[in-house]
Amino acid sequence: MTNKIRKAVFPAAGLGTRFLPATKSSPKEMLPLVDKPLIQYAVEEAVESGIESILIITGRDKSAIENHFDISFELEQLLQARGKTAQFEQVRAISDIAQISYTRQKQALGLGHAIYQAKAFVGEEPFAVLLADDIVDGDDPALSQMVNVFEKYNAPVIATMQVEGEAISRFGVIDAEEVESNVYKIRDMVEKPAFEDAPSDLAIIGRYIFTPDIFPAIEKTEKGAGGEIQITDAMRQLLKDREFYALKLEGTRHDAGDKLGFLIATVELALKRDDLGAAFREYLKSLKL
Ligand code: G1P
Predict the structure, then answer these.
(1) What's the pTM value of the predicted model, to 2 decimals?
(2) Could you list the residue range(s) of the whole structural domain that residue 17 is in?
(3) Are strands 202-210 and 157-162 parallel, antiparallel or unpaired?
(4) What is the CATH number of the domain that holds 190?
(5) Which pLDDT tens digit goes with each residue over 135-174?
(6) What is the distance in A from the centroid of ligand 1 to the CA of 171?
């Protein structure tokens, strides 16, 4: 079994109910932050972290994702004919970014069930899972920070961050012991606990490195929070047999699948742009807030 993380799975079959009406017929993964769809940020992060092969788990009304990573023949011809070389190269690079395949999750039965659709693709190697609406903005790609921890401890790794107050109940939450700066050995975890029951303020965020033994664990997992097959419950099963670690990521995490989180991410990323940042900053300063 190779120990290099070469494959990544992107669950993208969710119905995007937190972002209606924009997500009525278009996938939430295609919502743009400034000018780039959410899923492209996550795919770029994966590729920068060493991923070669990607499986996107899609559902109905998700063909825009496949089109985005395909060659756009007419557009490319037009850009070339008009001498718009930079734009041509930008568009072409998206279809060359990685080897991407697709499979459908026919029913939205939960994140654990979505990840299970990747069993044949993954085979016998460790792999990453990235949830595209969690955008992590930092100097080092989030997944590559986690790959380092995986290689050191030779065990599955999930991403975590501190969440203050009642908001913790929107996440999976870990009970864990810090073993080195920002690295935790997980004792237990629970999906979306009530605030009073949360074992800590350490929330799970949408980056995971799994080993293939997660699949039999998902098979044994019954419906949990929200009546769905939860990946947190499958990890909890596996925790009986093997060690699991969590890494507090460096960088800022944005929940771009949430309307307010999306607005915040848009502003933060726009301010960092060389081509837009200065003018946008001037505009924001002019607002009489
Ligand atoms: C999922 C996971 C949850 C995690 C969250 C991070 O929940 O089930 O454990 O904390 O992603 O974004 P969802 O946001 O899909 O409800």
Answers:
(1) 0.95
(2) 7-286
(3) antiparallel
(4) 3.90.550.10
(5) 999 999 999 999 999 999 999 999 999 999 999 999 999 9
(6) 5
